[in-house]
Amino acid sequence: MITAQNVPNLPGWMDLGSPDPGASAEFYSRVFGWTAEQVQAESEQEPGYWYLRKDGKAVAGLGGLPDPAARSDWMTYIRVADAASTTATAEANGAKVRVPVMPIGPQGSFAQLTDPAGGEFALWQPGEFTGFEACCIDDTVLWAELWTRDPGAAKAFYPAVFGWQVEPYTEGAPEGGGYDMWTKQPGDPMEAFGGIMVIGDDAPVQDEKWIPHLMVADADATVARATDAGGAVLIPASDAPPGRLGLLADPFGARFVILQPTPMAGAGGAPQ
Question: Rounded to an integer, what is the distance from CA 111 to the centroid of its chain?
Answer without folding.
Answer: 16
